[in-house]
Specification:
About 10% of the residues lie in helices and about 35% in strands. The protein has about 170 residues and is mainly beta. The strands form 2 sheets. Strands 1, 2, 3, 4 and 9 form a 5-stranded antiparallel sheet that branches. It has a 4-stranded antiparallel sheet with strand order 5-8-7-6, with no helix packed on it. The protein is elongated.
Length: about 170
């Protein structure tokens, strides 16, 4: 074991630490929708809102090698589906060369110039009904996680609010 890893051994996941996380993410029906293996983990700065709040809270206090099953309710993930986050857009607002399909993801720019992701919820006679909710809104997320790395963040990482290199 290298000296650097030995110095990190006593650390537990907490604010200001860079966490390397192996995980598999499933929905209620068991469908796997994302994963990061231990040799290519998700690396993030804990306490900087880089991951969903419910998962971040569940990881606090864990150490390298700790593995858990964690379920995160919508309120602590991407929220509930907001019925007001749907917008009917006339077909002439889309480029003529785009073949619109239900479920298709689109990037849009609002009146203030902010970029937003939307998904075509339904194609109607009078236009496309766009869903502006996050695709995982309303979903309970089920994670199988393992902490595979842990280190103190650099001053630059803390100032920038995210990790700069693998943990």
């Amino acid at each position: 074991m290298t000296k650097d890893l030995q110095q990190q051994d006593g650390l537990a996941v907490g604010d200001g630490l860079v966490v390397s996380l192996a995980y598999t993410l499933r929905l209620d029906d068991g469908e796997e929708i994302d994963s990061a293996p231990s040799d290519e983990p998700l690396t993030y700065l804990h306490g900087a809102q880089n991951i969903i709040p419910g998962l971040e809270q569940a990881l606090t206090g864990l150490k390298i090698g700790d593995a858990r099953k964690v379920s995160v309710n919508p309120v602590d993930a991407y929220g509930d589906v907001d019925p007001d986050a749907f917008e009917l857009v006339p077909y002439d607002a889309f480029p003529a060369d785009v073949d619109l399909e239900e479920g298709m993801g689109l990037q849009m720019v609002d009146e203030r110039g902010r970029q937003m992701d939307a998904y075509i919820s339904e194609l109607r006679d009078d236009g496309a009904l766009l869903d502006l909710n996050h695709p995982l809104a309303g979903e309970t997320l089920h994670f199988d996680i393992e902490i595979v790395g842990l280190r103190r963040a650099t001053a630059d990482e803390i100032a920038h609010g995210h990790s700069h290199r693998a943990g």
